[in-house]
Amino acid sequence: MNALPSRPHSDVVILGGGFTGAAVAWHLGRQPSRPSITVVEPRPFLGGGLAYSGEEPSHRVNVPAARMSLLPDEPEHFSRWLAASGEIERDPDAVWCNGDVFPRRRVFGRYVAEQLRPHLESGAIRHIRGQAHEVKRNGDGWIVATSGQPIAADMVVLAMTHPSPGVPSALTPIAEAHGFVADVYAADALGPIAPEASVLIVGSGLTSADTVAELDRRGHRGRILAVSRHGLRSRGHPEVRGAPFGDFVSRPAATALGLLERVRSTLAAADAEGVNWQSVFDQLRLQGPAIWSALAPDERTRLARRLRAFWDVHRFRIAPQVETVLERRRAEGTFDNIAASLVDSHRAGDRLAVSLRRRGRKQVETMHFDTVINTTGPAHGNALRTSLVLRSLADAGLIRIDRHGLGIETGLDSRAIGPDSDPLEGLFVAGPLARGTFGELMGLPEVARHAQAVASEIQSRLGALPTIEAER
Question: How far apart are CA 327 and CA 329, in angstroms?
Fold first, then answer.
């Protein structure tokens, strides 16, 4: 009787092949020891993910190209590739008036894919195009169940960075209605919207701004209203980019209120010296991990709940090309954003009625729209319920949501915290799902640095782990 075929084995299996997973794989693939690496990702190429694989031409990177790179210590790695690729000549609008370059997002995805190609061709990195649906322990290692054959792994990296947005409870009555767009990144989500349609956009961050820009490019000229709890819109970049300004780590604030006061005083000092506010937030971003670690857990939670909206609109800036569209639409009277809370919704004939309460007012007003678009952003706090892999680990008691509701509870070495409150051997969390521990982990420069750190931690541990004997 013939023996059953061996189960495929990989030193490292990375779940998710967007920028985070691709960056971890790339850093591991460059190691002299050349561990075997498998990336499970349904898209046809690695590195694009949700953010950098779309074909929409109005979607541009939000960070100047000179600050985007797979190599944290070489911030202009992408810029050099961009200059040699011919993309700037094909897209002259990418160059802003101050010389900064904001290419289309798909171009950055192509850059990442090209860096990975040699490792894929050599076999150092293997791309399984599919979905994983379960991860379970197997002795000292792990078994990853996919739509194909299960894979045995010494180590697993959870790099699924962008869960689908959650639909606000006030909008559930119209969630299945014609004209409601639950996920703006779904295929051709905005295609059916008529040029003169009245549109409500729920949310006012980066995705909301991109949605206005895409609608405008498609020829939409109707009224657009963006609504969010605070009514804050993502800010733009300065005409002249300066050096980071301020010091938040020599005497780090111990409370969220103390940090807020420090930010305000630093902004005042910057203004007195003729330094733009963006330079202060650049310093906050750079020093974010130290700032976050200096806060007690309760203060971190307070910061995330009370000040996150204000942080997001200043930290995560929109490309100037997108900002120009928003300002033009506002001047034309076809775009506005307000601060309000959603109360209820219902179908009203062939339109959608949404009831809301403006900030500072008691009365509820009902407005009618042809289209309602949800841009509330990735529901990281719901990731353990919406992802089959994460749910399988959570149901087994192996991972849990962090106390701030930002993602997965993770140790300082980026390993998931297990049922005994100790890091789990061989299970890593990379990217935004680890931000409850590391604080600022949404911007690309920070994600790139974290991916490098995760790869380094994995490399240091690979030699200490016994190899899994493939089951027969």
Answer: 5
d(CA 249, CA 288): 9
Rounded CA-CA distance 241/320 in Å is 13
Q: How far apart are CA 353 and CA 372, in angstroms?
A: 9
Strand partners, 417: 423
The alpha carbon of residue 154 and the mean position of all alpha carbons in its chain are separated, in whole angstroms, by 27
Q: Model pTM?
A: 0.87
Give the number of other CB atoms < 10 A from CB of residue 472.
8
C-beta of residue 347 within 8 angstroms of C-beta of residue 131: no
Using an 8 Å Cβ cutoff, are 210 and 288 in contact? no
CA atoms within 13 A on the CB side of 334: 19
* pLDDT tens per residue across all 472 residues of the chain: 444 445 688 899 999 999 999 999 999 998 887 799 999 999 999 998 888 888 899 999 998 999 899 998 898 999 999 999 999 999 999 999 888 999 999 999 999 999 999 999 999 999 999 989 999 999 889 999 998 889 999 999 999 876 677 889 999 999 999 999 998 888 889 999 999 999 999 998 889 999 999 999 999 999 999 999 888 888 888 888 889 999 999 999 999 999 999 999 999 999 999 999 999 988 988 888 889 899 998 999 888 888 877 777 777 789 999 999 999 999 999 999 999 999 999 999 999 999 999 999 999 999 999 999 999 876 666 677 778 899 999 999 999 988 888 889 999 999 999 988 999 999 999 998 998 888 877 778 889 999 999 999 999 988 665 544 433 3
Neighbours of 399 (CB within 10 A): 29
Long-range contacts, stretch 188-194, CB < 8 angstroms, 24+ apart: 189/373, 190/214, 190/215, 190/218, 190/373, 191/218, 193/218, 193/220, 193/370, 193/371, 194/222, 194/370
- Compute φ and ψ for 356, nearest 5 degrees: -145, 160
- Could you give the CA distance from residue 422 to residue 10 in angstroms, rounded to a whole number? 25
